[in-house]
Amino acid sequence: DKAAVLLFKATTIRNCGDKGVDMAMDIAKEVILVDPDNLSGPFLVIIYSGEKRRSKWGQKVDKSEVLSIVQVIDSVLQQDIKPFLRVKYQFEKLQALNEMCKSESLATQERTRMRQTCTELVEELVHTTNKPHTLAYCAQFISRSSRKIRQAIQLVEMVLESNPDDVYVNAKACNIY
Q1: What pTM does this model have?
Q2: Packing angle between helix 40-55 and helix 17-34, nearest 10 degrees?
């Protein structure tokens, strides 16, 4: 099965630094063309895109690339997928759009629309997952609104109760406080 071979190739090449991630993304996109019903291709594209964005933290985000990833995520979310995968995809979409909102090239109206989408994703994630990193990220997002700071503190404190030694959760809590 060609898609399976390509998936194996993508996951192997991905471990070869930044260029490996770029090549793996291209191979995963090829999987989507070869076997459109296989959700592993879009999943890898989304994961690798997130890795690429995070490795370039602080640099400008490529708007067209992020929007194409969001389209892939939206197409996957239209499928009948398991709840934990839905949370994963929604979280990846939230992170991508949140990074996009920081772009200076966005028009005010477009930024407002993306922030609204992010807010809706955060609200849904808070009600559908118990993953500490996802909830801590959502709490930090919520804390941007001075009207919702109490809600953000309650959420991050709830996460801290069950994960007091988690560095990521503690870092997000520090950002909120």
Answers
A1: 0.78
A2: 160
